[in-house]
Specification:
Elements (H helix, E strand, L loop, with lengths): L5 E4 L9 H16 L3 E4 L11 H14 L6 E2 L12 E2 L11 H13 L3 E4 L2 E4 L5 E5 L3 E5 L7 E4 L7 H11 L4 E5 L6 H14 L10 E5 L2 E2 L9 H13 L12 H8 L6 H11 L8 H7 L3 H9 L14 H7 L10 E2 L2 H14 L2 H9 L7 H5 L1 H11 L8 H5 L14 H8 L5 H12 L7 H15 L5 H13 L7 H23 L3
Parallel strand pairs: 1-2, 10-11, 12-13
Antiparallel strand pairs: 3-4, 5-6, 6-9, 7-8
Length: 515
């Protein structure tokens, strides 16, 4: 009888779920689902200083948002979002902090069996022998005993180390395949040695057979650095240096904290976010929650990260979860690191957004709308027009609110901008004259159906005088109403603004054009 496939995802609740962690969970989940096996979620919270219940709750929330479920593990409940008191499965508890007695039994057995010894309050496992282990991605690996030092399996504070806990948990939970990041490859000889030792000192030695290990390549930034939560601090720090930001400037941040951040003594995400907000800088999305807040769709995220470190063996890269499960194999995981291409993710997400029904797009976008869009959203007709204008062109659900902010806030005209100057507002340009003509004509048009009437008037002028094409008229008008040369369809844009606001902006633009 073939042993059922059991995989697991075991994050540490020391922060939000990294997009790389989501990929690890996806691969392990898909492998179990493909083979009709079991997928377990457990929380590795032996780092008592850095672990938090809020972080555990966030990990569960993010996995659910992205569409990954689990057969055993913590189950979020009202009043217990981290699932500490609500767990499902026969192999629990699924928090390492709740399994100390289990670990101590194994540590004591190793000590009595001569495989481990006390060392200044800690317990170490004896090493020294060559260790050979197989990996489904990297093949057979041998590490000489001279390179393997005795390592701690129980800390002086009484808690087990990651190495001991992860090995015991995998064994007792029947994990058959361990899929994890390549950064754990150097840990595998230690885990192999632990399992071999436990098989000699514990009842039911078959439980401690080595699982199939499969280590996935790292996810890198385009510049070659590893995609890390520290990237946020790096961007915020560089922006602060470029702006000449000094102490006593950032509201809500003490000088000592600012100084510590700028000296790279801390990469605290909260400090980076405060500085970025002060400077109006956008930090890179690194964690799953970042992508959710930016307006990426779960299906697009999953489709994209599935291709990071895995080859579908086909030119078709767009697929949904059921198709990915069917295609996924460990043999498809490659050794080389993968690069996180944000432009490619934009394309994946834009395609998914464009495929939404108008009602679905409206609902999803509304959940990300800034407070300043409240008035526009309360006007059903205008909200419908706004969604109609941006759904076909939006790369994320939040992007329309950034590039379409001119609909709810007065534009700023920068006539030194190359694009604006090229639109006819440079020295001797014809845009101001065209704008003055449109202003006079638009004032006579009916308010009802204003957008179409204005568009038809421009089209008629362009047809009457081909030397001044439609593009020149439209370019001047776009700058006047938005401050830039890019807007959605002009007819929709004018209907959204209305006749009165359009005329007001045209007058403002003309009044600010350098003489």
């Amino acid at each position: 009888m073939t042993q059922p496939i059991v995989t697991r995802f075991a994050p540490s609740p020391t922060g939000a779920l990294h997009i790389g962690g989501a990929r690890t969970a996806l691969f392990a989940w898909a492998f179990a689902r493909k083979h009709g096996g079991k997928f377990i979620l457990r929380i590795e919270d032996t780092d008592q200083r850095r672990s938090s219940k809020d972080s555990a709750a966030g990990i569960l929330r993010d996995l659910q948002w992205i569409g990954i479920d689990w057969d055993e593990g913590p189950m979020p409940a009202e009043g217990d979002p981290g699932g500490y008191d609500h767990q499902k499965g026969e192999s629990g508890p699924y928090f390492q902090s709740q399994r100390l007695d289990i670990y101590n039994q194994h540590i004591e057995a190793l000590r009595k069996g001569g495989f481990a010894y006390e060392d200044q309050g800690a317990v170490r496992l004896r090493m020294g022998k060559d260790i050979t282990h197989d990996d489904a991605v990297f093949g057979t690996i041998t590490v000489p005993g001279k390179d393997l030092e005795d390592f701690v399996i129980k800390k002086a504070d009484g808690f087990p180390t990651f190495h001991l806990a992860v090995v015991v948990d995998d064994a007792l939970m029947g994990t058959t395949h361990v899929l994890r990041g390549a950064e754990h490859l150097p840990n595998t000889p230690k885990h192999a040695a632990l399992l071999d030792a436990l098989a000699q000192v514990m009842p039911n030695p078959e439980k401690y057979a080595r699982p199939v290990w499969a280590h996935m390549p790292s996810i890198m930034n385009p510049g070659g650095s590893k995609m890390s939560k520290r990237d946020k601090a790096k961007v915020a720090r560089e922006a602060a240096q470029k702006a000449g930001l000094g102490m006593g400037v950032v509201q809500g941040m003490e000088d000592a904290l600012f100084a510590s951040f700028m000296k790279k003594e801390t990469d605290d995400k909260g400090l980076a976010e405060v500085i970025a907000a002060h400077l109006g800088v956008t930090l890179p999305e690194i964690e799953v929650l970042d992508f959710a807040k930016s307006g990426y769709l779960p299906a697009a995220i999953l489709n994209y990260i599935a291709l990071l470190g895995w080859n579908p063996k086909t030119e078709v890269e767009r697929f949904d979860l059921p198709e990915f499960i069917e295609r996924f194999t460990l043999e498809g995981i490659h050794k080389s690191n993968s690069t996180f291409d944000r432009e490619k993710l934009f394309r994946f997400n834009a395609e998914r957004i464009a495929a939404l029904t108008p009602a679905a797009f409206s609902t999803r976008a509304a959940g990300l709308a800034p407070a300043e869009f409240a008035g526009l959203m309360q006007d059903e007709t205008k909200w419908h027009l706004f969604c109609k204008a941006y759904q076909p062109r939006a790369r994320t659900l939040s992007e329309p609110f950034r590039i379409g902010r001119f609909f709810v806030a007065a534009p700023v005209w920068n006539f030194a901008d190359k694009g604006v100057a090229k639109a006819g507002f440079g020295p001797g340009g014809e845009a101001p004259g065209l704008l003055a003509q449109m202003q006079a004509a638009f004032a006579t048009l009916p308010e009802n159906g204003f957008g179409k009437a204005a568009h038809d008037w421009i089209a008629a002028q362009a047809a009457e005088n081909p030397a001044i094409g439609m593009g020149k008229w439209a370019g001047a008008l776009r700058v006047a109403i938005s401050g830039s040369t890019t807007t959605p369809d002009l007819e929709i844009s004018l209907d959204l603004l209305g006749q009165k606001e359009t005329l007001k902006r045209m007058a403002g633009c003309l009044g600010n054009v350098p003489k």
